[in-house]
Amino acid sequence: MRKLFGTDGIRGIANKYPLTIDICVKLAKSLVKKFCENNGENREIIIGKDTRISGDMFEHILAATFASLGINTRLIGVCPTPAVSIITKKMKAHFGIMISASHNPFADNGIKIFNRDGLKLTDAEEEQIEAIMESGDESSNHGEIIGDKIGRIFTDPKMLDLYVEKIKKSFSFDKKVCEKIKIVVDSSNGSFSKIAPNIFRDFGFDIIPIHDSPNGININEGCGVTNPNTIAAATLDNKADVGIAFDGDGDRLLLCDELGNFLDGDHILAILVESCGLKNSEIVSTIMANFGFEQYLKNKNIRLVRTKVGDRYISEYMQQSQKALFGGEPSGHIIIREHAPTGDGLFAALKVLDYIVKTGKKLSELQNLFTPYPVVSRNIKVSDKNIISSKKIIEKIDKYERQLKNRGKLIVRPSGTEPLIRISAEGEDKNELDTIVSDLVNTIESMQ
User: Domains along the chain?
Assistant: First the structure.
């Protein structure tokens, strides 16, 4: 059972357990023990971060710990999460670390870890690392690290060019068409603030950037994927053709059409299916995928594979199945096999734009590829996420699951990244869903 790792790495309030300096030192030592002990010389680690003020603190303590163990570290600086995945694999580093709390408020932070193939760690690997940390046996077996054995720390922001070049080489746009497409880009004051608008401009699009001035504390504040009304208003106000919103570390996106309608991960995956005429294949999503999307895929003889919530579970399945070219979550993580084994909001956005440029279709036309079932969702802040294991809550969940059987679904789960219980009910009758969710919310709140 994992205690430190959640849905996506270790996450929490910066400088408070479990995200303290002491934990980071033990984690760094345990990672070296796990991944570097038997790997000879020229051992190297990649570290990136988003724009939070606490990123510097974690970046330096991790790099210093690695150096004390004789490991070289390359600091990319501010970058999107997919860049760490891609650069780690490209440079054949022993592993990569992204310091980010993704869509969370600035006071939070997190540590995401990628193996040398650019893949997020499996549950089993995370459990092994926690076991090393708990045992206290995370010391190196390479003896005293002094003199020229001490690791080096290189500040190397130019490494980000490897990611940018990979993006640019993947697309060839007709600039005469692109210059007629106006796009509002909300970078969430995060990792894509300087990168994404420039790449869109280089391809020839008419860009209106918003929330691209990070100051260390404004990441995700009233902007980005968790504040969709912001990108909708900006798209309409600027009479833009497309609105694109990223999250703080750039591995998620949300689209908005010219009419102000949102397109979530299910819609984006449907556009990708249309763009390549995909049939007789697989799409990988999670238990959160909409029934309407699943029916759309069935009509194309495409199987929807559902995993646990978390893009790493999608990625794990995609490594096993050659049939799965695309995967993603309704929340906006989109994984495209040809590009990277983790979500990349920029690459997914460009794939959609590529289809729009080639077909001349408006995004609003692509918004109607399927009709989603109504969904009612609520997040409840709790002091103890184990509250959903209480008999009273379990009985209510069982009751409503039976009520919705074959007509919809109910998901009640603890957040893997925040002190929240997430409730999501899906079905044909929104009034019924409202009643179910309200009852569960009231019950949980009354028990605190």
Answer: 5-163 (3.40.120.10), 170-366 (3.40.120.10), 375-446 (3.30.310.50)
Active site residue 102: yes
* Calpha distance 56→78 (Å, rounded): 10
Q: What is the pLDDT of residues 384-432, one digit of tens each?
A: 898 989 999 999 999 999 999 888 899 999 987 788 999 999 999 999 9
Q: Which residues pair with 242 in a beta bridge?
A: 183, 257
pLDDT for the residue numbered 3: 85
Residue 272, H or E segment: helix 265-276
Residue 387's Cβ-count burial label (10 Å; 0-12, 13-18, 19+) is middle
Among 102, 187, 188, 331, the one annotated catalytic: 102
Query: 359, 364, 348: which is closest to 235 by C-alpha?
Result: 364
Interval 240-266: pLDDT, tens? 999 999 999 999 999 999 999 999 999
Whether omega for the bond prior to residue 18 falls within 30 degrees of 0, making it cis, is yes
How far from 431 is each of 385, 406, 425, CA to CA, in Å? 27, 17, 11
The answer to whether the CB of 65 falls within 8 A of the CB of 169 is: no
Closest CA relative to residue 43, chosen from 150, 197, 166: 150
Report how far residue 201's alpha carbon sits from residue 206's, in angstroms, rounded to the nearest whole number. Answer: 7
What pLDDT, on the 0 to 100 scale, is given for residue 280? 80
Tell me the three state secondary structure of residue 117.
coil
* Euclidean distance between CA atoms 407 and 400, whole angstroms: 11
Q: Would you say the C-alpha torsion 313, 97, 350, 91 has a positive or negative sign?
A: negative
Residue closest to 414 by CA, chosen among 385, 443, 435: 385
